[in-house]
Design goal:
single chain, mainly alpha, Na+/H+ antiporter like fold, about 80% helix, globular
Length: about 300
């Protein structure tokens, strides 16, 4: 089946999860403040479990090279995103929230379950490469532009449960250590909860928002266009020019995961950090919600373009 069609099907499944969260609030099964509790559940338990489980696969040289290739591509992508927002900002000024919303994508909560379903557990390993790079950037660059120098705290990177899960996962991956069946099954099934729970959070946020106000913000449309269309297209050009996908066999398939991360909606972390540092979290949330709606169309479209160029 065509990759873009498979992606569209899974995004529609995610959309139904969002609808369930939305209806949960409307029928008073869930409360509006439950979003923060569920988000914490995802951040501190479900996501680390899924990440660690992604490394519980048999080691091979090809997988190691693929992971390192994905890390290299992810670093270059973030350099590209930073350069683009800098130079575009010279033409049309972007405030801190808008810049962060263009640069950072929801590569964890949304992308990980999508990749796991479409391509299989092995490819979640490559998704972790992009996540590791973005996690460092979020708590350094993103924290800096939203909160200033005092907001940059390397300790938050080291103690981030997702980073810890990646480090432990890599140690187990390279050493060949595998967990016994019972804890391995528990981790796998916990990680499998990430799709519905993460989307419930978005559904709750949508139920708590004025959608008319969300979709009438002209600047939000611009930011979503940059995040969902311009950034992915620039990423394709960068991959094509550098030739990174051709550095290994099946490199284009491996880097499709990183590319899809570049085409994902705005990271919900931007809204969270904006709230922490007293910035306009309402605007950040509106951009996030709008980008989630629009990605139903744009991500399959960008996948079709990537397939046309590389696959």
């Amino acid at each position: 089946m065509n990759l873009s069609i498979m992606l569209l099907q899974q995004i529609l499944v995610m959309a139904l999860y969002i609808l369930f969260g939305y209806l949960g609030v409307k029928f008073r099964v869930l409360r509006k403040d439950d979003s923060s509790r569920l988000a914490s559940l995802v951040l501190f338990i479900i996501s680390p479990a899924l990440i660690f489980d992604a490394f519980q696969i048999s080691f091979s040289f090809d997988k190691m090279i693929g992971f390192l290739l994905a890390v290299l591509a992810s670093v270059l992508m973030h350099i590209l995103f930073l350069a683009f927002t800098f130079f575009f900002g010279k033409l049309m000024p972007l405030n801190e929230i808008e810049r962060a919303s263009v640069i950072y994508s929801n590569c964890g909560n949304l992308l990980v379950p999508l990749i796991g379903t479409i391509l299989g557990k092995e490819y979640v390993l490559y998704c972790c490469a992009f996540m590791s790079v973005q996690t460092v950037m979020l708590w350094t660059h993103c924290a800096y532009i939203l909160g200033g120098k005092e907001a940059v705290n390397p300790k938050r990177i080291i103690t981030n449960p997702n980073v810890i899960a990646m480090i432990l996962g890599l140690i187990f991956f390279f050493s060949g250590i595998r967990l016994p069946m019972i804890p391995a099954t528990a981790l796998e099934r916990t990680g499998a909860c990430i799709a519905p729970v993460s989307m419930f959070v978005i559904g709750i946020l949508i139920a708590s928002s004025d959608l008319t106000e969300v979709f009438t913000r002209k600047r939000s449309w611009l930011v979503c266009f940059l995040r969902l269309i311009v950034i992915p297209i620039l990423t394709i050009f960068m991959l094509r020019i550098t030739g990174i996908p051709y550095l290994m066999k099946d490199g284009a398939s491996v880097l499709y995961v990183s590319f899809l991360a570049s085409a994902a909606p705005t990271a919900v972390n931007v809204t969270q950090l904006a709230d922490i540092y007293g910035k306009d979290s309402t605007t950040a949330g509106a951009i996030n919600i709008m980008s989630v709606f629009l990605c139903i169309l744009t991500m399959p479209l960008m996948t079709a373009v990537y397939q046309r160029v590389f696959l």
